[in-house]
Every structure is written in C-alpha cells, then in structure tokens.
Write a structure and sequence with these properties.
mainly beta, 75 residues, 6-stranded antiparallel sheet
C-alpha cells in the first residue's frame, strides 16, 4: 500500500502529489471535503486513461487508493 510522499509543482503551476511508489496525481478540487482531498492519476488522458484515484486524509496525511489500479508503470 503506497503512502503519501510529497507535493510537487506541475508544469502549469498546479499542485501535484507523489506517492511512495512513484505515481503522480493531480488534484480534483470539486471532490475535496474538510476531511480529505481527492486526487486522480496524472496519466488520465489518452492514450493511457489511467482510472486510479487517491484520497489524502488531511488530519494525518494518510493515503487511500480508489478501487481501480494503475494501468501503467510508475514514473
């Protein structure tokens, strides 16, 4: 199970998250709540269309993956 690693800046200044396995996620702001922030895999556009999502708990920075796994190797 991957854990939260760090935040990085994207090419256009957006905040991105890196997990301990090396996958990079972009933030899904409309899905955020006071308890967690929602993220989707950065490779969610064609041709990869990765379906993986992650949820970062804001109180303790624990990372929970959605039900669908990555369909590509880590970056």
């Amino acid at each position: 199970m991957p854990t939260f690693s760090k935040f990085i800046d994207g090419q256009r200044g957006s905040q991105q998250m890196v997990d301990s396995d090396g996958f990079i996620y972009s933030r899904k702001k409309p899905r955020d709540t006071p308890l967690y922030s929602a993220w989707r895999c950065r490779k969610n556009n064609p041709p990869t269309k990765c379906p993986c999502h992650a949820y970062l708990t804001l109180t303790d920075n624990s990372l929970t993956l959605g039900s669908k796994p990555h369909n590509h190797p880590a970056e």
